[in-house]
Amino acid sequence: MSPIQPIQWDPDRKVLTLLDQTRLPLVETHLHYTDPTEVAGAIRGLVVRGAPAIGCAAAFGTALGAVQYTGSSFEELDARVRDAMGVLARSRPTAVNLFWALDRMEKLLDSLEGRDCGEVREALEGEAVRIFAEDLAACQAMGDFGASLVPGNARILTHCNAGALATAGYGTALGVIRSAHRDGKVSMVWVDETRPVLQGARLTAWEMVREMIPATLITDNMAGAVMAAGKVDFVVVGSDRIAANGDVANKIGTYSVAVLARRHNIPFVVAAPVSTIDFEIPSGDGIPIEERDPEEVAGYGSERWAPEGMRIYNPAFDVTPAELITAIVTERGILMPPYAPAIANIQR
Ligand code: MRU
Q1: 67 and 264 Cβ atoms separated by less than 8 Å
Q2: Relative to the CA of 284, which of 2, 97, 174, 212 has its CA 20 to 30 Å away?
Q3: Residue pair 66/81 in contact by the 8 Å Cβ criterion
Q4: Where are the domains positioned within the chain?
Q5: In angstroms, what is the span from residue 284 Cα to ligand 1's centroid?
Q6: 253: phi > 0 → left, psi -120 to 50 → alpha, else beta; which?
Q7: Mean pLDDT of 12-33
Q8: How far apart are CA 258 and CA 271, in angstroms?
Q9: pLDDT digit string (tens) for 287-318?
């Protein structure tokens, strides 16, 4: 089975190819990008989604901004790339990996002031390729660290999609599940469907079926009942942004799962690369939570079931307080509470 590749870069044609996640699992189609504004549109429209994947796409989008300019004025190239980064930065607010990747690209651009345009284009493309490769390696490392926490014969619950699709490949939470499955530790994966846009039912389920990892789909409101019935041994989720005190923003509904896990004494583990930690934000209160189109809650696809005129609230993420989190798995090792010193230590 070929690996899942949500993001591909063609170094010869300078084209970014994204697996269209809005159409999975029914249609498996790829879209091609040569323009940073269109990449920003793909991020906003969830063609590419999941915090690390958004960061990688933004880095390639920035590189495309450089490649698009074929002239020889550094000032003009610099202005074009900074414009592209501005557009990409406005695509989605919560996943800090987007800003982390743009910051890396910007720092590199700053260091290239006045250099030959060919050299700048090559350096920015090289940095995007590095961000992508580092993410893939980080996911594999997290998978192995995280698998050491999984008990034998585990029934694992996960929320949203923190899989290969949400990263450069392999996944964060699903990376832990993949490594634990490879080690013979997984009896079954409970997949929360993850309303309103069903990243669990569509994307995590697709990854599990494709790789023949035994999994069962439930609606979000069933998680408490399966826990109460003693059918969950371990919970693992990804994250879009982790504050300096260990509070974790992730897909809406994660907080409810964490509260339920605490109630039933089930380990609740977060897997995320260090690029998901926002060292500048002291607690989860400071994390910007994206609100999305009310139509996502009013119905699905072309079908609307809520009455016209109904007020709708659609936050895409929630914050799970650090106190509910058993461990945070990163590519540099496993962080345990208290998280503030553990996170400060990892920054060094
Ligand atoms: O709105 P999405 O699909 O981008 O939200 C994705 C999540 O919340 C994931 O759990 C998170 O980004 C971690 S992905 C490794």
Answers
A1: no
A2: 174
A3: yes
A4: 7-140, 145-347
A5: 16
A6: left
A7: 98
A8: 14
A9: 999 999 999 999 998 999 999 999 999 999 99
State mean pLDDT over 91-95.
98
Helix (H/G/I), strand (E/B), else coil: 328: strand
- Burial class from Cβ neighbours inside 10 Å (0-12, 13-18, 19+) for residue 47 reads buried
Token reading at 186: 């997984």
Q: Is 20 a catalytic residue?
A: no
Q: What residues does ligand 1 touch, defined as CB less than 6 Å away?
A: 49-52, 95, 160, 162, 166-167, 172, 199, 238-240, 250-251, 316
Q: Which atom, in ligand 1's list, is nearest to the CA of 92?
A: 4
CA of 225 from ligand 1 middle (Å) equals 24
pLDDT band at 75 (very low <50, low <70, confident <90, very high): very high
CATH number of 145-347: 3.40.50.10470, 3.50.50.60, 2.70.70.10, 3.40.630.30? 3.40.50.10470
Among 78, 135, 220, 240, which one carries the catalytic annotation? 240
pLDDT in tens, 192-202: 999 999 999 99
As beta bridge partners, residue 295 has none
**What pLDDT, on the 0 to 100 scale, is given for residue 8?**
98
Which amino acid is it at 271?
A
pLDDT at 348: 77
- Could you say which DSSP state residue 192 is in? E
Out of 43, 91, 159, 160, give the residue to mutate to test ligand 1, the one with the largest number of ligand atoms within 8 Å of its CB: 160
Question: What is the CATH class of 7-140?
Answer: mainly alpha
Helix (H, G, I), strand (E, B) or coil at 320: strand
Q: Token pair of 126, please?
A: 């090289």
